[in-house]
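Subject: Sanity check before I submit

Could someone independently write out the structure tokens for this chain? I want to compare against mine line by line before I put it in a report. The sequence has 215 residues.
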Amino acid sequence: MKRSDKIKAIVFDVGGVLSLGKNSRWDGKEFVPSGVHEDIANKLKISLDQYIDSIDTNYVLAIEGKISEEKVLNIFSKNLKISKEKLTKFYINSYRKHFTQNKQLFKQVFKLKKLGYKVAVLSDQWYLSKRALMPDKIYNKFNFVIVSCDVKMRKPNQKIYKLIIEKLNLNPSEILFLDNQIWNIIPAKKLGIKTILFKENKSLFKNKIWRSLFI
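---
Independent answer below. Compare away.
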């Protein structure tokens, strides 16, 4: 691919792309994720099953922004028998323990911005993962940031991809989207967005489409 193919914007996922799980790995087919929820269960000295039952559908609703931060923390606090303040601290610390900013990729992201590309974020997060993994000092540098809990929809709902297309004010074919999950890549492709399935930095930096951006 050459620069003449007119990619004008690059959109990045956060978890597994811009923020890497310290203990997660690509097993050849999919990512084996870091253990934030296991960590919280251990801190609370309960089984993982008991913990999952305690957060259940409310966690999903929080990712979709269909329940407020205050309400979801009230529910979690009651079910898990721990104060909201302490639980919040547990979550923030655990996300920061299990994830690290992908500094190598960030360097290239902001190099692309200097080259004239728009750079954006499209990520599924709930309130506390967003707070822990997406510091303003870094993410304010992007042209657009769309997070599921803020816009009340999540991937792979096509509406969230249409929203980023609208925000960028570009044709889908002028956008490149990076995500580490194939089921999030598929709806983007269907809309005509160019895509790269992110596995790790080494393979991305060798990717022909990615390399062509710097020509």
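---
OP: Matches mine. For the report I'm noting this point. The chain has twelve helices and nine strands.
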